[in-house]
UniProtKB/TrEMBL annotation:
Keywords: Cytoplasm. Its main location: cytoplasm. Belongs to the DOCK family. GO terms for molecular function: guanyl-nucleotide exchange factor activity; small GTPase binding. It comes from the Eukaryota. Residues 336-370 form the C2 DOCK-type domain. InterPro entries: C2_DOCK-type_domain (IPR027007), C2_domain_sf (IPR035892), DOCK (IPR026791), DOCK_N (IPR032376), DOCK_N_sub1 (IPR042455). This is C2 DOCK-type domain-containing protein. Transmembrane segments: none annotated. One of its GO terms (cellular component) is cytoplasm. It is found in: Cytoplasm.
Length: 370
């Protein structure tokens, strides 16, 4: 048991060193933060050497190894004594922290109250033939509701981002996740694919271009990532695309069978959440290689903290999708004046027409004076 505990301890130390090394190599840290991070790295290395029973390396105030040929014996002794004392204090702090956490029955990760989910959008493959909008958000299937704002990716008909300068740099961070969000029984990453073009795929009429039409859904269960059971930011996850309905078949208010969701029936007038839940419940998906690739990583801290601690991942160009509502801890200066309106479904009188007519909905906000 002691060997296993020590192995896991050293493993965590190694992960921290790899993380910090990436930050140093990113070249994005200011000079003062870089110097501070180097001190943390050397302190972590010295601490790891001690618990492994290896030799102690003496360093100067900047973390550089002292040269015995240029440093006096007395100076080396004092530096060795100071370093040894500092490491002993660190070991005692670690033991005290571990004991307190064991008494509470909480893992170390839970000492943080706010978390962020980093999403790196790698690629999207789908035979649409027109431009598309991809709306990515976090979804609780048990409560049938979204818990975050959308991250929007505009995808061109040529299979590339509409904003070509964002090629290989489509990243977002879902912020303000609380400790209660991390213990949700299930949580999914949902991507809604909206086709932007003609009313029908085969419609060549120019006056119908630029219309937004729901096309499909891609869903990934990210519960293990949110719970901290999976932590590999380099791994690319494939999320299969599921076309929710053949648009040419939606003509009458009747239930239709989606060709890509075996034994799952989708109705024309079904609420959107019902569609998502049926897609989530689908065991097998005939995706034919269509879908999107993403990499994910759960980061401890709010937006400001992850920008500081994970600057090699989250920078000023990273899109931010905030949690619906307010974070668990509201900081001074954090102003939120948002109202969210989602058009779930609607019923309209088609009048004397035999087929349903298209409807455009316009919404606006007015004060008491209109």
């Amino acid at each position: 048991d002691n060997k296993t505990t020590q192995f896991r301890h050293v493993q965590q130390l190694t992960y921290s060193l790899i993380e910090w090394r990436s930050q140093i190599l990113s070249g994005t840290l200011p000079k003062d933060e870089l110097a501070e991070l180097k001190k943390k790295v050397t302190a972590k290395i010295d601490y790891g050497n001690r618990i492994l029973g290896l030799d102690l390396v003496v360093r100067d105030d900047n973390g550089n190894i002292l040269d015995p040929d240029e440093t006096s014996t007395i100076s080396l002794f004092k530096a060795h004594e100071t370093a040894s004392k500092r490491i002993d204090e660190r070991i005692q702090e670690e033991k005290s922290l571990q004991q307190n956490l064991e008494l509470r029955g909480q893992p170390i990760f839970n000492t943080t109250h706010t978390y962020s989910l980093y999403v790196n959008f790698k690629n999207f493959v789908c035979n649409i033939g027109e431009d598309a909008e991809l709306l990515m958000s976090l979804y609780d299937p048990d409560l049938s509701k979204f818990i975050s704002e959308n991250y929007l990716v505009r995808w061109g008909s040529n299979g590339m981002p509409k904003e070509i300068e964002k090629l290989n740099n489509l990243q977002a961070v879902f912020t303000d996740l609380s400790s209660s969000d991390l213990i949700r029984p299930k949580i999914s990453l949902v991507c809604q694919i909206v086709r932007v073009g003609h009313m029908e795929l085969k419609d060549g009429k120019k006056h119908t271009c630029g219309l937004r039409r729901p096309f499909g859904v891609a869903v990934m269960d990210i519960t293990d990532i949110i719970h901290g059971k999976v932590d590999d930011e380099e791994k690319q996850h494939f999320i299969p695309f599921q076309q929710i309905a053949m648009e040419t078949y939606i003509r009458q208010r009747q239930l239709i069978m989606s060709p890509l969701i075996t034994s799952h029936v989708i109705g024309e007038n079904e609420p959107l959440t019902s569609v998502f839940n049926k897609v989530i419940a689908a065991k097998e998906v005939n995706h034919k290689g269509q879908g999107l690739w993403v990499s994910l990583k759960l980061l401890p801290g709010d937006l400001a903290q992850v920008q500081k601690d994970f600057s090699h991942l989250v920078d000023r160009s990273t899109a931010v999708a905030r949690k619906m509502g307010f974070p668990e801890i509201i900081l001074p200066g954090d102003v939120r004046n948002d109202i969210y309106v989602t058009l779930v479904q609607g019923e309209f009188d088609k009048g004397k027409k035999k087929t349903p007519k298209n409807v455009e909905v316009t919404m606006s906000v007015h004060d008491e004076d209109g």
